[in-house]
Specification:
Elements (H helix, E strand, L loop, with lengths): L13 H19 L5 H16 L8 H11 L5 H4 L1 H9 L7 H22 L7 H18 L12 H15 L2 H4 L3 H22 L8 H17 L11
Helix pairs in contact: 1-3, 1-5, 2-5, 5-6, 6-7, 7-8, 7-10, 8-10, 10-11
Length: 239
């Protein structure tokens, strides 16, 4: 989950990011599983929350590594706690049946990941919301493509989801004018243009797998955006 975002981080954070993505994926898989009853999973998530809030003693475990890395990088442990709010839906076996509910779940998973990405890139809070939109668009697109269980009870036409994705990408496009780093700006341009191309192909009933010509266009347009889109300074009012 969100492993692809590793490309927009400095290399020194690769291990931390992979551990965080593993934490998200393991939690999602575990609490969506029917192997345990809802009662047992409620107890498990309560124990997990307590473990996150305290120093986890078992060296070498995933949570231990994450806690140590979070302290070293001055990251808030709330980035580990917020996804638990999404997993409470899965524990109660209440699969979302409205667009508002699925948006809430996707946001609960995407928002902390987006903040972590921007903090590790030394970017300011004005980038958090558009980055959340980008991750949400990528997550939702994959959920639609692979018919994720989260969408099983939502009866919406294909064109509705395409409009939803287009809106998220439009919100995410602000990133290119607010990030400070040119390296990050180019990486984000590649990600934005890739998801835009995939949405366009989906709207035309084509497979999402990009062709060589698509990749060339994405690269060239990203270079163009890197050169032409100027950075907007953000003050307190904008944030």
């Amino acid at each position: 989950m969100f492993e692809y975002a590793e490309k927009i981080l400095p290399k020194k954070y690769k291990e931390l990011w992979n551990d965080y993505c593993l934490f998200l994926q393991l939690g999602q898989n575990h609490f969506a599983s029917d192997e345990w009853s809802a009662t047992v999973k409620k107890q498990q998530i309560s124990l997990l929350e307590r473990a996150i809030r305290k120093d986890f003693p078992l060296a070498g475990t995933l949570l231990y590594r994450l806690q140590k890395a979070f302290v070293a990088e001055n990251l808030s442990l709330y980035l580990l706690l917020e996804p638990l709010q999404a997993w409470h839906w899965l524990i109660a076996a209440k699969m979302p049946d409205t667009e508002a509910q699925i948006s809430e779940i996707v946001m609960r998973l995407s928002a902390p990941a987006a903040r972590m990405l921007m903090v590790l890139n030394n970017e300011n809070p004005s980038t958090y919301l558009p980055m959340t939109s980008l991750l949400s668009a990528q997550y939702l697109f994959e959920a639609l493509e692979y018919k994720d269980e989260l969408l099983r009870h939502i009866r919406k036409p294909h064109r509705f989801w395409m409009r939803k994705l287009t809106g998220l990408v439009k919100n995410a496009a602000v990133l290119l004018s607010v990030v400070k780093s040119k390296r990050l700006k180019f990486r984000l341009a590649l990600e934005l243009n890739t998801i835009i191309c995939k949405i366009d192909r989906a709207q035309n009933n084509k497979q999402s797998e990009l062709e060589r010509l698509d990749r060339i266009k994405i690269f060239l347009y990203s270079v163009y955006q890197l050169v032409t889109i100027r950075r907007k300074t953000t003050g307190t009012k904008e944030i």
